[in-house]
Amino acid sequence: MQIRTVCPNNNKYYIMQSSGGWNGAIKGNPTKAGANVLANCVGYANGRFAEIIGKDTIEYQMTCNASGFVIRGPRDYNLKVVPYPTLGGIMCWEGGSNNCGHVAIVERIDGKNQIYTSESAYRGSAFYNATRTNSNGRWGMGSAYKFQGCIINPAIGDVHWEEPTNEYKVGTTYTTQVILKVRTGPGTNYSQKSYSQLTPNAKEHAYSSGPNAGCLKDGTRVTCQEIRQVGNDVWIRIPSGWIAGYYNGNRYVK
Q1: Which residue from 37, 117, 149, 227 has the least number of CB within 10 angstroms?
Q2: DSSP 73
Q3: Residue-range definition of the domain harbouring residue 197
Q4: Predicted local distance difference test score (pLDDT) of residue 1
Q5: Is residue 105 left, alpha or beta, with left meaning phi > 0 and alpha meaning psi from -120 to 50?
């Protein structure tokens, strides 16, 4: 999935059905032109969840209060709720004013207790990203809220943080076992870097043209600067960007 970092505009996932869109949520407050279910966490989550799925419709219309998502999802749509964040899933909280709750979309999982979300807030911001940590069991929400769980996005599945079971260590030098793309972030949803975007040293060990342009050659020595686990895959940041160390059960860097 491509991480959303900008407010949607003229996008049917975020436009009310009565206005020609696909979203069954109420009008946002304040109302965002070109995305009139915003500002509202319910309308946003309803649209973003469907946008990640990618169909030209919203088949899971969860348009109740945010605190009711964990009830409606399983009851009406057979969606699964788990007690931890899942990629592309809906984080759900109860509490707040009139127990309306709050919902947010998991755009990225940074670690066991840290996620990156996209959200909206009724009578607040139409769109914003947030880094949420779980120091208090509420994933960054105040004491008036209680974390209920996360609704798994069926297009992605139960992709969540798992403790790395890999041999990689920051500061250690490894060798690529295959031709590898260098990406802007830790995952195949991030774009590949071009040859011109590589460091001078990396260019000496990469293809400058042809179908593998910008890719590191097998046998290239790389220094691990950061490690990121995405589901069961392990990504390594090197000076030029991110490469797959362990992907789909295969170890590409040793």
Answers
A1: 227
A2: H
A3: 173-251
A4: 75
A5: beta
